């Protein structure tokens, strides 16, 4: 393996958390190297309009916003590179990282900002209409369906929360649940049942999302009697959970039961000194661009202090 190189601070991942960490680390003189990963810009690159990020009064396209973040990081002196981290060894000092299965780097401090990916149903129609009426984030996109009819699939706490959120904006919310009960907590279930414009469709599976350019309806199957039905809707939300992109680190870092990196409360520190985590790889509660950016700032400040203490 060639290209041995040493980084004072290495950042893995490139959404709001990774780029913000790069901006702060670069300004602190840490000369950060950032690898952008499989999806440069992260989940925001599959989001069209972002209207809830402060500082963009007219809204902004997700990819444009991530491009702005990247340019700012580069202007501050961050070395942003295309490449996928394929292997890490956090048991050694300095930490050892392999990129694209070939280049080996060492790093004093590592910031992980690999994010999470929404779980999808896996339907071709869902993929085709993603961003055109199909969304995995009600808080991000619900606003665009004000006064319209939408469907949401899922039965856990997130689904219940997103359904009640959508109910405030939309005329009607159909909640498509595969079983005859919700997995959500009692309190969340009661909130769903108390909301008059949410209709829960028990024992239903989604067969196909309908529409040419944008969503116009959905085709469902009733699991009990195998009958099909169609709903006319303008928006389709998938709320069956997120998968944090953390498999790479599971040998070394403490993860919770769903795979999120556990950080010491009030900080970005992991169980390994010199390794920090930010953004959706460690946040399963808020999952917003603005909170990811905030945690990226925390990680860079934590890394800077740690490096100073270590005398690097």
Oligomer: single chain
Task: Provide the CATH top-level class of the largest domain.
Answer: Alpha Beta
Order of helices and strands: EHEEEHEEEEEHEHEHEHEEEEEEEH
Q: Number of domains in the coordinates?
A: 2
Rg, rounded, reads 21 Å
In round numbers, the mean pLDDT is: 94
Strand content: 25-35%
CATH fold name of the largest domain: FAD/NAD(P)-binding domain
Find the count of extended strands (DSSP E, 2+ residues): 19
- Ends distance: 26 Å
Number of helices: 7
The shape, in one word, is: elongated
Low-confidence stretches: none
Proportion of helical residues: 25-40%
Explain this structure to me?
The chain has 2 domains: 5-117 and 242-310, FAD/NAD(P)-binding domain, CATH 3.50.50.60; 120-238, FAD/NAD(P)-binding domain (3-Layer(bba) Sandwich), CATH 3.50.50.60. α5 packs parallel to α6. It is an alpha/beta fold and 312 residues long. The strands form 5 sheets. Strands 1, 2, 5, 6, 7, 8 and 19 form a 7-stranded mixed β-sheet that branches. A 5-stranded parallel β-sheet has the order 10-17-11-12-13, with helices on one face. It has a 3-stranded antiparallel β-sheet with strand order 14-15-16. The longest helix is centred in the C-terminal third of the chain and has 22 residues, at 289-310. The protein has helices at residues 16-27, 62-76, 124-128, 138-141, 157-169, 186-194, 289-310, and strands at residues 5-12, 33-35, 49-50, 60-61, 79-81, 85-89, 95-99, 103-112, 116-118, 134-135, 149-153, 172-176, 198-201, 204-210, 217-222, 228-232, 235-238, 242-244, 275-277. 26% of the residues lie in helices and 27% in strands.
